[in-house]
Every structure is written in structure tokens, then in C-alpha cells.
């Protein structure tokens, strides 16, 4: 057909041509999908693989189910096989993978709009979803699920399908398969299950979390009565057997112990991230690519274990999070003293007061409002805040008889009075807004906000500190990078998410101030412990030494450490962040130095530099120890000469003149 002929086509012809083209394209894509998945189903004759997690370097690291024990169908109790078929799919041996009767019944129920929804999935469809799809409820997924179920019925026998299903079904607590669950729950093989035991275990399949025998035993028992009734209705057991099983006492073993504690917190965190997307599914030969570095995980676990051993105290816990500040990639995570004895991940689930580790957000908000690192906070001896409970005076042993401090000095000394005054000057609104934008949400609007009286998790606080070495960007933490199916196609991807929160200028000023904390402030112990290179951070301690923190960074990593008891109690007398959290942080940073070198963080080009006295934070005179301060546009740059050091004769005269005019200003105010 020539181009001139195309121009003469009618609108109807164009529509028909477009529809035909789309139909052909759909058929081609459908044929490709069918062919690829048919081959994957056919390969099941050779056995089923496992979902494997890979580390940041692309090396196989661990399997989703490290405790799976596959057994032949004839080594599974007949009671259990009959129970599962009766309660999950009683027409299993009659349908071709999809049950039209069950689908119709479910459709009618759902169209009536009653409470909840009813599914019509067969055992074969459940197996298809477990092996190849996600739990996402969409019509597209249901169509794929039905197609795969039919393929399973074509290539496998009913016996093979049931065997695969019973060995792959998710039964809660990270446990897949009847043999593993039978061993963990009852201490016996699946071949030896009694009728009552089989009914209880079969009942778990519908909702593993709700019917967990370790968490909800009564609910599991009630569910088993439903299973027994269905078995009796299906003619698999007699009424007498049902009554006997209902009266039988089932001894459930204590919750299973962890078989391997090595990297346990990191692995279980990643497994949960995968389950958040795919539920209890465990597809064969899928690859989950993660951000974790096993060598750094080793360093983190060693640092935490060694730190807790040095501190002492039965039941004392610690958490550590290491993250790439530029990508949000989680590099290592420790959630407690020992995964073998406590699997609760405090790094992501424990919300505790950050204490002074929250102060950098107050100072950053002040710099955003136009203050500079050498702006003075005055009135330190008169801090009295009107609060609903009365007048509140923050305790501060660091100010002695000082009346004022610069922002830089107040932060490196961790002055409580200065932080509270600064919050009053800036207003709690900007501080709360900055914290919220950095992922530290739900903080209280109270005068003690500046002292970290809210609650945070170690992961949240560590991720928030990434705004400093990135010079202003918030980055969302991620543990998963991608999930690939058996064909190597991406079925899920987690992208890097960055958002500018602070200006480069304010962020760099904060970097220099937090580096000062490590070089000559409350974090100076890190240098004595061998931490080298340009690093910064902040200590944190709460009332009566209940929580100890240190969160710090280099150009390549941000690391947060928390130490405390699960039920808040004194760690020890003098158990500050500098004494108990900083040593763990320092140990990790030393061990990780080769893989995570600390390079210089370059200042933005539009910052102005001035030489300032290191003691008084005024213009230097002869004899002043000095450092280079960075000022952004609009900052007040000090003009007053240092009043502490003597200086030259000319400088002393100039200082006297400055003092005279400042005195006149005070008289005429």
C-alpha cells in the first residue's frame, strides 16, 4: 500500500487497523509469556529451587528459607494431606487447576458487597502464586495465576502438585513446608502427625500470623475445629474420630531457637522487606539483590559484642546502623546483643529518646534562620522556661559562670542551656519541620525538644544525619535493590530517593561544627580510640543514663549507635554516649576504614572564610590560636577583637576603643 492510499483510509479503517495491530501484539506477547512460563513449570520436574539473597557485590549470601526440609509425599501424614485438601480445596482431584464452582461462588459473594472478600483459589493456584507471582490483588495477577495453574496441571500430576505445595506452603515465623513446621512446632516428623495435630497445622495455612501456635494458640485451636468439621463433611474421618481429636491435648514446643545467629538481624530485616512485597511466597530461583556488605556486617557485630562486653550489665542491648549517606544503601545492621537469644530488632523497632543527639537539628534550623557558627547565645545563667508543669530550668553542668557561648562552642560542649535558649530564639516550628522533613517524625512541641525528649529509632536518626555529609540531601534508607525472577527479569526495584532539605552552605557549616565535636568536644574520645580522617558526629545521653547514643559520619558512611536496656534503666553511673556508645562507633569505624575511607568534604564555593580565635570566637589578635570559619551570605561576621589574648599595643588600643563605644551603646539602649 502506497502512502497516498494510506491517506485515503477512513476513520473506521484506521480503528480496525489499530485494533488488529494491538490484537496481534497482544497475541505475540502472550505467546512469549506462555512459552517462558511453560518452560519454568516444566523444569519443576527436576525439583524446586529457593529465593536467594545476594550481597552488595552480587555474591550469593543466604536463602530466604535456610531451614526448609523437603520430604516425599508418602512421608507426610495422611491426616495432614486430607486436612489440607478438605479445608483449602476439596475438589482438588476433580478440577483442571482452576475451580469454576469456587470462582463463581466467590464472585457472587464479593458482588453482594458483604463484609470481607472470599477467594476461589485452588491449591494449584496457590502453588502457582507462591512459585511465580506476588500477593498483589489485581485482575492481571489472577489471570496469570489461573494460566500458570493450568500449566502446572498439564506438566505435573496431582500427586506432584500436592507434594510441591506441602513442601512450599508458608506456615508463619519464617517457616516453609510441613516437615520443618512439624519439627519446630511439635518436635516430630510430618509422617507422625496425629489427627488433631494435622488439623491444627492445616488450619494455619489460611492466615499464618493470626493462627500462629506460638502467638495465638487459642485462635489456632478454634481454627482446627473448622478443619476437623470439614474433614468429617468430606468423609475423610468419622464423627467419633472428630470428637476424639477435639478432646486431644496438643503439646506445642517452645518458640524455635535461631539456628544461626551470624548476620541474623540483617538477614531477618531483608527477609521482612521481601515479605512486605511478596507475603509468604518463596519463588524458586529468584534473586534478591541487597545493599549489605557482609564484611561490614561482621565488623558491626564484632564492635557491638565487644562494646557490650566491656560495659557489662546483664540484659544490656545495643543497636548499630551503617548507611551510605549518598544512596541510602544500608551497609550493616545490628539490632541487639545476640540474635540467637533476642531476635527483636532494636535498630528499626525500638523508639527511644535521642537526648543530645537531637541537638544538631536545632542548630541547623538556627543556621537556616541566618545565624552563623560564631553567633552568640546569651543569657545562659537566666534560663527559666514557663512550661505547663511550672517553671523549667534545664540542668547544665557545662556552662559554669558563662553568660554566653557561640553556637560552635555550645554544640561541641553539648550545653543544654544553650540548646534550649536557641530553640526559644528560633522557635520550635522550624526545628520540628526540619526533623519531620528528615524522617524524624512525631516529635513533641515542648521546650525540652532541643534536648531530645521525643522518640526515634536508630535507623531514623542515622538516616537523618545523612543530610550533613551529603550537603543538604535527605536520602531514604534501602536494603533491597532489586528482585529478579527465574528468567532474570526485574519484578521489583527500589530506586535511590534523594531530596534537598538544607542548603549546601548550612549543611557545610554543620559539618565543620560536628567535626569539632569529634576533634575537641564530647566526641573527642574517638580520636583517642584510633579513628582517623575527617569525621563528625554527636553524642547523646538521656536522664539518669537510660539511653546512650553516638551518631557520626564521614564522607562515605553515616553510623548510628544506641545502647540501653529494653525496659529503661540506668546503664551505669556516668553511662553517657561518650562513655558507652562512642567506643562501639569508634571500633566499627576503625574496622571499616579500609572499605569506607574518610575523605574531605569540600565546602561550597560561595562561602566566605575568615580567621577566628579558637577560644573567644572573635577577631584574632597576636597570640590567639586560630581556625578558619565559614560564613554564608548574610551572616554577621565578627568585628570585635579577641578580649582574652593580649595582642599588640595597636590591637589593645583598638580593643579599648571598641569597648568604649560598646559601653555607650549600653547606656543609651
- Rounded mean pLDDT is 87
The largest β sheet comes out as:
5 strands, mixed
The CATH class of the largest domain: Alpha Beta
Number of domains: 5
Strand content: 5-15%
Question: Would you write up a description of this structure?
Answer:
This protein is an alpha+beta fold and 669 residues long. It has five domains: 3-46; 67-247, Orthogonal Bundle (Penicillin binding protein transpeptidase fold); 291-354 and 456-486 and 504-598, DD-peptidase/beta-lactamase superfamily (Beta-lactamase), CATH 3.40.710.10; 355-452, Beta-lactamase (3-Layer(aba) Sandwich), CATH 3.40.710; 608-667, no CATH class. The protein has 23 helices and 18 strands. It has a five-stranded mixed beta sheet with strand order 2-1-3-11-12, with helices on one face. The chain has a five-stranded antiparallel beta sheet with strand order 5-4-16-15-14, sandwiched between helices. A hairpin with a 5-residue loop joins strand 1 and strand 2. Helix 15 (359-368) crosses helix 20 (504-520). It is elongated. The relative contact order is 0.08.
Topology of helices and strands:
Blueprint: H1 3-7, H2 11-42, E1 52-54, E2 60-63, H3 78-88, H4 100-111, H5 123-132, H6 139-155, H7 158-168, H8 178-186, H9 195-204, H10 217-233, H11 239-247, H12 264-278, E3 287-290, H13 294-311, E4 317-323, E5 330-334, H14 346-349, H15 359-368, E6 376-378, E7 385-387, E8 390-392, E9 404-406, H16 407-413, H17 416-426, H18 428-437, H19 458-465, E10 473-475, E11 480-484, E12 490-493, E13 498-500, H20 504-520, H21 525-528, E14 536-541, E15 547-553, E16 558-564, H22 577-592, E17 608-613, E18 626-631, H23 649-667
Parallel strand pairs: 1-3
Antiparallel strand pairs: 1-2, 3-11, 4-5, 4-16, 6-9, 7-8, 10-13, 11-12, 14-15, 15-16, 17-18
Amino acid at each position: 500500500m502506497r502512502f497516498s492510499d494510506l491517506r485515503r483510509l477512513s476513520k473506521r479503517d484506521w480503528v480496525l487497523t489499530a485494533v488488529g495491530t494491538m490484537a496481534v501484539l497482544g497475541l505475540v506477547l502472550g505467546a512469549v509469556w506462555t512459552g517462558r512460563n511453560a518452560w519454568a513449570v516444566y523444569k519443576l520436574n527436576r525439583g524446586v529451587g529457593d529465593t536467594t539473597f545476594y550481597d552488595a557485590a552480587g555474591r550469593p549470601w543466604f536463602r530466604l528459607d535456610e531451614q526448609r526440609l523437603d520430604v516425599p509425599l508418602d512421608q507426610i501424614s495422611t491426616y495432614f494431606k486430607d486436612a489440607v485438601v478438605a479445608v483449602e480445596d476439596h475438589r482438588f482431584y476433580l478440577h483442571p487447576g482452576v475451580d469454576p464452582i469456587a470462582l463463581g461462588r466467590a464472585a457472587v459473594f464479593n458482588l453482594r458487597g458483604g463484609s470481607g472478600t472470599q477467594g476461589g483459589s485452588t491449591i494449584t493456584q496457590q502453588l502457582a502464586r507462591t512459585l511465580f507471582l506476588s500477593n498483589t490483588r489485581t485482575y492481571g495477577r489472577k489471570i496469570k495465576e489461573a494460566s500458570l495453574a493450568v500449566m502446572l496441571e498439564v506438566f505435573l500430576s496431582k500427586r506432584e502438585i500436592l507434594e510441591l505445595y506441602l513442601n512450599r506452603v508458608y506456615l508463619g515465623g519464617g517457616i516453609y513446608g510441613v516437615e520443618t513446621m512439624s519439627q519446630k512446632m511439635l518436635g516430630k516428623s510430618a509422617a507422625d502427625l496425629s489427627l488433631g495435630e494435622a488439623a491444627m497445622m492445616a488450619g494455619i495455612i489460611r492466615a499464618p500470623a493470626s493462627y500462629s501456635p506460638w502467638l495465638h494458640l487459642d485462635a489456632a485451636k478454634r481454627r482446627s475445629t473448622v478443619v476437623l468439621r470439614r474433614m468429617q463433611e468430606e468423609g475423610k474421618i468419622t464423627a467419633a474420630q472428630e470428637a476424639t481429636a477435639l478432646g486431644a491435648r496438643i503439646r506445642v514446643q517452645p518458640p524455635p531457637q535461631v539456628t544461626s545467629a551470624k548476620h541474623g538481624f540483617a538477614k531477618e530485616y531483608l527477609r521482612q522487606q521481601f515479605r512486605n512485597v511478596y507475603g509468604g511466597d518463596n519463588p524458586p530461583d529468584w534473586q534478591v539483590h541487597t545493599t549489605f556488605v557482609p564484611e561490614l556486617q561482621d565488623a558491626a557485630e564484632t564492635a557491638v559484642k565487644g562494646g557490650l562486653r566491656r560495659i557489662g550489665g546483664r540484659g544490656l542491648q545495643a543497636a548499630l546502623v551503617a548507611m551510605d549517606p549518598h544512596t541510602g544503601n544500608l551497609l550493616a545492621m545490628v539490632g541487639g546483643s545476640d540474635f540467637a537469644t533476642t531476635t527483636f530488632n532494636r535498630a528499626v523497632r525500638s523508639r527511644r529518646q535521642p537526648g543530645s543527639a537531637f541537638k544538631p537539628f536545632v542548630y541547623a534550623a538556627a543556621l537556616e534562620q541566618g545565624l552563623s557558627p560564631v553567633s552568640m547565645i546569651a543569657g545562659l545563667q537566666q534560663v527559666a522556661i514557663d512550661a505547663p508543669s511550672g517553671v523549667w530550668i534545664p540542668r547544665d553542668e557545662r556552662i559554669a559562670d558563662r553568660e554566653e557561648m557561640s553556637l560552635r562552642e555550645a554544640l561541641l560542649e553539648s550545653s543544654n542551656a544553650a540548646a534550649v535558649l536557641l530553640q526559644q530564639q528560633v522557635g520550635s516550628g522550624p526545628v520540628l519541620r526540619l526533623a519531620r522533613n528528615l524522617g524524624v517524625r512525631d516529635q513533641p512541641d515542648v521546650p525540652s525538644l532541643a534536648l531530645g525528649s521525643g522518640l526515634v529509632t536508630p535507623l531514623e536518626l542515622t538516616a537523618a544525619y545523612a543530610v550533613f555529609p551529603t550537603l543538604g540531601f535527605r536520602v531514604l534508607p534501602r536494603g533491597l535493590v532489586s528482585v529478579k525472577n527465574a528468567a532474570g527479569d526485574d519484578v521489583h526495584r527500589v530506586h535511590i530517593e534523594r531530596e534537598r532539605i538544607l542548603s549546601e552552605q548550612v549543611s557545610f557549616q554543620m559539618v565543620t561544627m560536628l567535626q569539632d565535636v569529634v576533634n575537641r568536644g564530647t566526641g573527642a574520645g574517638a580520636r583517642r580510640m584510633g579513628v582517623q580522617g575527617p569525621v563528625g558526629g554527636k553524642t547523646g545521653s538521656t536522664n539518669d543514663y537510660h539511653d546512650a547514643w553516638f551518631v557520626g559520619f564521614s564522607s562515605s558512611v553515616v553510623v548510628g549507635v544506641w545502647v540501653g536496656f529494653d525496659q529503661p534503666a540506668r546503664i551505669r553511673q556516668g553511662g553517657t554516649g561518650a562513655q558507652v556508645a562512642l567506643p562501639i562507633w569508634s571500633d566499627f569505624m576503625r574496622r571499616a576504614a579500609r572499605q569506607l575511607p574518610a575523605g574531605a568534604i569540600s565546602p561550597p564555593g560561595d562561602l566566605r572564610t575568615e580567621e577566628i580565635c579558637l577560644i573567644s570566637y572573635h577577631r584574632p589578635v597576636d597570640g590567639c590560636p586560630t581556625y578558619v570559619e565559614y560564613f554564608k551570605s548574610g551572616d554577621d561576621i565578627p568585628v570585635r577583637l579577641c578580649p582574652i589574648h593580649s595582642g599588640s599595643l595597636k590591637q589593645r588600643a583598638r580593643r579599648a576603643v571598641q569597648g568604649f563605644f560598646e559601653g555607650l551603646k549600653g547606656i543609651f539602649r
